Amino acid sequence: MCGTAHATAADASRSGPHAVRGAAVDPIALEPVDEVRVTILMDNTFDALLVGDARTTRTGFGATDVAAGQFEPGRTAVGLLAEHGFSALVAVRRGDSTTTLMFDAGLSPAGIVTNADRLGIGLGDLHGVVLSHGHFDHAGGLSGLSSTLGAQGMPMVVHPHAWTRRRLRGPQGTFDMPTLSKRALAAEGFEVVERSQPSLLVDGAVLITGEVDRTTEFEHGMPAAHEAWAGGEWRHDPQVIDDQALVVDLRNQGLIILTGCGHAGVVNIVRHAQRLTGVTRLHALLGGFHLGGPAFEPVIAPTVAALVDCAPRLVAPGHCTGWRAQHALAAALPDAWVPSSSGTTHRLVGA
Fold this sequence. Notes:
Blueprint: H1 9-15, E1 35-42, E2 56-57, E3 64-67, E4 75-78, E5 87-94, E6 97-103, H2 111-119, E7 126-130, H3 142-149, E8 154-158, E9 166-170, E10 173-176, H4 182-187, E11 190-194, E12 199-201, E13 206-208, E14 226-230, E15 233-236, E16 246-250, E17 254-259, H5 266-277, E18 282-288, H6 297-310, E19 314-318, H7 323-332, E20 345-349
Parallel strand pairs: 6-7, 7-8, 8-11, 17-18, 18-19
Antiparallel strand pairs: 1-5, 1-20, 2-20, 3-4, 5-6, 9-10, 9-14, 12-13, 13-16, 14-15, 16-17
Helix pairs in contact: 6-7
């Protein structure tokens, strides 16, 4: 953690698996919206040959061109950047009013700014930033955003444990993750708002979940290699307690849920959002599902089964979802599953 604050035993206990039944003690009155546009500003892949449809727009090679002397007339068309990171722009419309938030900021300082420029998206209308959690591949582009726009007074919603020092320890060595600095963000002009409880933004139309209840029996979090510095020593950090999601209620259609990595478990996240809002219908689930790698393969089947029961209209997993989970989701939800790619925009309209 930044400074002297650390996760406590009570924090860990609160985030552990436990039964949660009935309505939320403090239900969230989430205001329905008329339209949501989610633009994937950065993802692990960019595929210029993907085809869009009525609700999903793709970006090809013609986004922009750059100097290249080996071609005539000295330039070549390029697409978008892809990196092991995630960032999305979420534009929420109610009537004639539209508000745009950035959810996560990718890995590299210049990545999201470069892609926004190539897409012709002006970031000057950005109203705020939300971080799903403190991992560096979701916050690396904040410095580029600040340098490009100037972030004076830009509100940023984060969980108080986003500043946790973390590392990955494996057979090939230990990787110390870059640790997000609250002091640096404040110096760059961001107005940091720390919340572990649910937050309502955009006049009650956007919900940031805060800490997610861990209620399923199969979503156990990160393996032993993922550690956090707490109490003067490195400890296994399975929960990533700062993980949170963004939720919108699309009028007469159901919830749209956007995750960063889904460290809390995507099924936990969906059920938590349903319980908080009282809206049971899931319309769309997008973002990272963190089901890649051997440690998460046993989680794929029950996750897919639970999502099939939700019957979403759109499932667009990206980032850390993993290829095995992508194949399983595509097979189980063929009419809903859409491959993710940098530059993709999903336009979802209420009824």
